[in-house]
Amino acid sequence: MNRAALFALLLVGGCGPLVQIGGNVARPEALYTISAAYPAPAPAGAISAGQPPVGQPPVDMTKAVSIDVPQVPGALQTLRIPVVVSDTSIQYVREASWAEQPNRLFQRLLADTLVNSGIAVIDQRSSGKAGGRRLTGQLKAFGADVRDGRLVRVRFDATLIGPDGVRQRRFEHDAPVARIDGAHVSAALNSAANAVAADVSRWIGSSD
Questions:
Q1: How far is the first Cα of the chain from the last one, in angstroms, to the nearest whole number?
Q2: DSSP of 35-56
Q3: For the ranges 89-98, 117-126, 164-173, which has the lowest average pLDDT?
Q4: Among 36, 108, 109, 186, which is 20 to 30 Å from 119 by CA?
Q5: Mean pLDDT of the chain
């Protein structure tokens, strides 16, 4: 066994229980989720449906945003929490699962963050309307990484389609994590995801 492989095994052994892809999946001890941080009340006029609040002016639909569910790679098409242990190996946190697939959790986090920053977000399914701008993209990373220490990483490749054309940008944020278990990893991912969502919100706001 080469030194790199031995180091990876020792590092994972100190991170807590993991389960390999394809292994027997233990019943999760808890279901985890993420939620938007609200440093201030949502500004007046920020909405998440097709109708403005009572007493508020009509929404400028050309600036409103519809948010697609982000696409994800195969490793994220699951309720389990991935841990990258090498350039060619991914494991999952044992006895830990998301309440929903991470791309749907992240879509809602984006919507809540945009609304809180004063950007109208239109849910096309519930309102029957589409915003003048469409946010889509790929959630490339949403898990832990122990290749060089212990951290979590959220990476979102965003595409904003609107009247002025197409804009694209990558957003990424890492956060340290003390232990590789459901409680610690989900809390760190919540922090990293909020940082990414805040950056996305500022980026979209800068195009108004």
A1: 56
A2: ----SSPPPTT--SSSSPPTTS
A3: 117-126
A4: 186
A5: 82
Q: Which residue is it, tokens 């400028």? A: 60
DSSP structural state of residue 22: T
The residue assigned the tokens 């991470």 is: 102
Token code pair at residue 171: 């957003």
pLDDT at 18: 52
Convert the pLDDT of each residue in 63-104 to its tens digit.
899 999 999 999 999 999 999 999 999 999 998 999 999 999
Contact partners, residue 100, CB within 8 Å, separation at least 6: 33, 79
Q: How many residues does the chain have?
A: 208
| Domains of the chain, first to last | 3-39+46-205 (3.40.50.10610)
* Angle, CA of 195, 39 and 152, to the nearest 5°: 25
Distance CA 200, CA 173 (A): 12
Continuous H helices in the chain: 3-13, 102-116, 124-127, 182-205
